[in-house]
Amino acid sequence: MAKIIISCAITGGIHTPSMSEHLPITPEQIAEQSIAAAEAGAAIIHLHARDPIDGRPTPDPEVFMQFLPRIKQNTNAVVNITTGGGLGMTLDERIAGALRASPEMASLNMGSMNFNIAPSAARVKEWKFAWEKPYLENTTNFIFRNTFADVEQVVERLGKGHGTRFEFECYDIGHLYNLAHMLDRKVVEGPLFVQSIFGILGGLGADIRNLNFMKETADRLFGDQYVWSVLAAGRHQMAFTTMAGILGGNVRVGLEDSLWIGPGQPATSNAQQVAKIRRILEELGHTIATPDEARQILALKGGDRVGF
């Protein structure tokens, strides 16, 4: 069996500080949790930046540079920087951190979509910062934009400009076809790292039949030109990543995707989630890929060619 790559999404741009006291906010916290996740078995660390004062997502490259060098100095993990950013950021803002850091990998959403996280606001009893509640509630009228032209611009500026390869985030079946269109036109090239995403309101629902259909469609569209990975939001995280491992896929966990470690049990760290999925997969007979093995599988440029 092929070795399984574990990715860990450390903080994201969805959850807010009031939703979990364990969500890393400051550069120090992001670095510490990234290092611990790598030590627990994550080969890829997916990163957003936060304003250290109030925890809101920030596109500021200088904030990224407060934690990226420390992660590199203390781990061999592949660093994967967001191009999705935070809600309401422009495309230039969303890719600013990645352009500054020139990472081995970056995420790239494969289409525009409704992205509604407003229901999570109803579960918060007390807010730490004034920005959080409207940030969440306003997503009932929010569209995340990534047009075909936007995607091509990111590939041109970051992929071709920096040798960065992508985690192609596919929230729906149509996103796979968008990616296939880009592959046919040679905008992108294999091996494609395709991240199938389930459970976000506005995207594909967390249903096992959808998981199977997503894989069947990707197999048909990409054949041996892609590497498959799965993440699922909230309570679906561990069940879906376990199923992905059974089907031969790679997995992503982390506090960006879920704040839980089990039913009714808040996760206390990213490393806790990595350790759990690693244990499950190893008990199923799988071997976990090292960062260097992930680099070989995904044809990455190497950690010595980044800008931090």
Automatic annotation (TrEMBL):
Residues passing through the membrane, by range: none
Name of the protein this chain belongs to: 3-keto-5-aminohexanoate cleavage protein
Any one Pfam family match given in the protein's UniProt record, by short name: BKACE
InterPro entries in alphabetical order: Aldolase_TIM, BKACE
Keyword Protease in annotation: no
A GO term for molecular function: 3-keto-5-aminohexanoate cleavage activity
UniProtKB keywords: Metal-binding, Transferase, Zinc
Superkingdom of the source species: Bacteria
CC cofactor: Zn(2+)
